[in-house]
Amino acid sequence: MNNLNKILQSAKSGVAIYDTSDWGKILVSDRDRLRFLHNQSTADFEKRQSGEGCDTVFVTSTARTIDLATGLILDDEVLLITSPNRRKYLFDWLDKYIFFADRVKLKDVTDTLASFTLMGAESASILAQLGCPDLNELPLHSHQVHHVNGIEIRIAIGTELGLPGYRLICDRSSAPALKEAIANLGAVTVDENAWECLRIQQGRPKPDAELTEDYNPLEVGLWDTISFTKGCYIGQETIARLNTYKGVKQYLWGIKLAGSVAVGTAITVDDEKVGVLTSCSETDAGIMGLGYVRSKAGGVGLKVMVGDVEGEIIDLPFVRHEYPV
Fold first, then answer.
1. Are the C-beta atoms of 26 and 92 separated by less than 8 Å?
2. pTM, whole model, 2 decimals?
3. Which helix (H) or strand (E) covers residue 13, if one does?
4. HEC secondary structure over 30-48
5. Angle between the 3-13 and 192-202 helix axes, to the nearest 10 degrees?
6. For 38-97, how does the pLDDT look when each residue is reduced to its tens digit (9 = 90+)?
7. Quick one: which of 125, 122, 109 has its CA closest to 169?
8. Is the Cβ–Cβ distance between 223 and 246 less than 8 Å?
9. Phi-psi bin for 245: left (phi > 0), alpha (psi -120 to 50), beta?
10. Are 67 and 86 within 8 A, CB to CB?
11. How far is CA 314 from the centre of its chain?
């Protein structure tokens, strides 16, 4: 098994750690913080309590995707975790919508806080060896503060990839010691190449690839981030109409490929274009891609051509493609 395959297998069936310190971290504070985020994104924030969290999507007024983010509800603040390349854009976007009467403050704390993703079937065992209690009974995105070797760590349930595991957040000054302690217990380090492979295998969309102003959250498959009952928010009217009239015309799928293909290559069935490839990488399961395919063309099991390379549509663990019941 080569090194890449070893890392990928560890991230699934063993334990691995990935440094997400460059992912954006924005503190949203003051009295109206929950109402503000409630009105600016797809998730229901107003019902959230301290210690809870959720994924949410920020969209344009026409429901085109800006970023998939995670909000962790603290006692007096919300820690918003964004994609690395959306940090400044999203900060400025949110700041633009704070009006005179709003009691909301924003603070970019990316350079203050470090974060890691601990993933894999054995990740809970690592936390246990560090003296942390069993957190597996808590709901997804729940989070608690614990102390490990004198380091204060906020531990949140779940990973950005939908794999078993946790997000670990600590002060930047404590990050090297925390990472060393975890590595000493057997966690394999995930590099950027391995992360991209895992992202594609799981189907985690990213900005400038699957998350662009060409697509809305329903096409991406981010149904679980959307409240269909909370009322008005930016982009809500378009999303509600698509849901009501079942108007989603394309979906994000995985594609198992017979060879490497350039991003942007057309996906065809019987010489008719039905979609476009958005990501591609060689993985331990062969060459995998992500792409949008017209819903009328079909789904899992559909044989396609991506350029002159044969492919087959496969399901993705991270997203789903059905209307909520």
1. no
2. 0.96
3. helix 3-13
4. CCCHHHHHHHHCCCCCCCC
5. 50
6. 999 999 999 999 999 999 999 999 999 999 999 999 999 999 999 999 999 999 999 999
7. 109
8. no
9. alpha
10. yes
11. 19
